[in-house]
Amino acid sequence: MKRTxxxxxxxxxxxxxxxxxxxxxxxxxxxxxxxxxxSLAMGTAYTAIANDFSAxxxxxxxxxxVKRNEISLGLSHYLYKDENTFLDEKSSFSxxxxxxxxxxxxxxxxxxxxxxxxxxxxGRQVDYATALxxxxxxxxxxTANYPDNIDIRTNVLENGxxxxxxxxxxxxxxxxxxxxxxxxxxxxxxxxNRDYTGSDIDNNYYFYEINRLYTIQEDISGFTGRLGLxxxxxxxxxxxxxNVKLPSTLSMRDDWVDTENYYDDIPDSDYVAxxxxxxxxxxxxxxVFSAGxxxxxxxxxLSGDVDYTDWTQMEFKNTYSDLLQxxxxxxxxxxxxxxxxxxxxxxxxxxxxxxxAGFAYLPSPYSFHTSDxxxxxxx
Length: 379
Prior knowledge:
Elements: H1 2-17, H2 22-29, H3 37-41, H4 55-58, E1 70-86, E2 89-109, E3 116-127, E4 130-138, E5 150-174, E6 177-199, E7 209-232, E8 238-245, E9 249-263, E10 271-284, E11 288-297, E12 300-310, E13 315-317, H5 321-324, H6 326-333, E14 336-347, E15 354-362, E16 375-378
Antiparallel strand pairs: 1-2, 2-3, 3-5, 4-5, 5-6, 6-7, 7-8, 7-9, 8-11, 9-10, 10-13, 11-12, 12-14, 14-15, 15-16
């Protein structure tokens, strides 16, 4: 009877895993830290600086400041580590990725007045690499999915990311006033692997061990764009910028495989179940409005940015009715947020060396979260 109840619970849990949820919309809408070594080092407070290739992402109007041809190349190494306590037992797990962060070309066209600059290239928007492990002996059942007296071993790995393939242009419409636009083709992938083992080490049940491997492979494609404005003061010490990220239209296909193995010390009692399937859906991400200012004090450059995003604008489209119902839950669960980012750069006198630092504060978009749930970056 215990085995029957456990099997029923696991199959119910299986059916829940095959759907998409509001978290999927958030994952696809999240912009991450973007790219560009200088912008990352300054806490991504770059809307009012944006005078290199990474302007195609932070503020395309900033490209109008570039006076010479530029080739840009960047690599990134991402390390994620999780530590947790489950049933009074501590566990840790990590995941790391090294990727091409950016590759671009900036070309200023010769003009008699003002400037006209074009750029083309690639940028890694966000990495999905995460890891989670929890290991414990469940002496007393605490959740429906884990019966008592079971040794639990679970590992979860997420991988993938979003890539932007970009073309952009900017002009100096008036003295010190730059306007720009970028068009972005988005490609990417996401994978989820969950490996669960439940061992009946005291042999209280008719099975001895359960092993379950659940995987999702998602292919992502879409497009978006950005509109930018940047104004430089006459003394060239101050700059003010605005960047509008237009909603992204993304199309996804998820292929999933769920394999369950039940082992017993009784001959011919092993049981194997495998289920496969796929789903397709579209997601529209929200507008992101960014504004920033920077000022130069001798060898010191200071910058600050704010971003406004209304996360209730996320929306599932062109899919099955159950997933479309998540749009109502998105309205109830998410709320607008305002991000704050600051950065500094100091050029060491009589050298070609500059040191940079920054801080970014990104509140959680979930309406029931507090400031403790915000992401905080020191760069």
